[in-house]
Amino acid sequence: MLSRIRRLSVAIVLGVIWCAFGLAHAAPTTTICVPVSGSPNSCQIVGSGVSLPVSSSGTGLTSTETGFTITTGNTFQSLAVANSARKSCTIQNTSSHIMYVFAGPLASATTTNSFQIVASGGTYSCATPAGVITDQISVTTSTTSDTGVANFN
Asked: Could you tell me where the DSSP H helices lie in the chain?
């Protein structure tokens, strides 16, 4: 029985590492890696106990975190222009309605071809397994005056 538990534990840890490095062929999952206190070149996958090395040029990223308000419900508004130098972005929905996020030209944005961010804390990241989305980013909700927070690097 103990041998089975050890094999299962090793399989779980290896599965987490494979997913963290994008080696699994399964559907994409969200992995949150937080800095390890006292170790600037590693982070820990939330809830796993697994630490991973983080490459760094030593300069870090300068981010711009901004709160925003939907000016007209059901109408997409530009949150960030296209930027080929973008390194990351995170958008958090702080409203009580679903938020829609579209990456691409504002004129092409519709709720049916956009990502949905759940209400009250849901997030969207520009990071993908292939790289960072550098297109224009636009958002909307169903209601005027809904809010969110965005962070762009």
From this structure: 2-20
pLDDT of residue 77: 98
Distance CA 8, CA 112 (A): 41
CB-CB contact of 31 with 20 (8 Å): yes
Amino acid identity of 85?
A
Distance CA 26, CA 20 (A): 12
% of the chain with per-residue pLDDT over 90: 55
The CA distances from residue 68 to 15, 71, 147, in Å, are 38, 9, 6
* pLDDT tens track for 29-38: 444 555 555 5
Across 37-60, b (16+ Cβ under 10 Å) vs e yields eeeeeebbbeebebebeeeeeeee
Tell me how long the chain is: 153
pTM, entire model:
0.62
What angle (nearest 5°) sits at the alpha carbon of residue 99, between those of residues 70 and 82?
A: 75
Q: Where are the domains of the chain?
A: 2-53, 64-152
Q: At the topology level of CATH, where does 64-152 sit? A: Jelly Rolls (2.60.120)
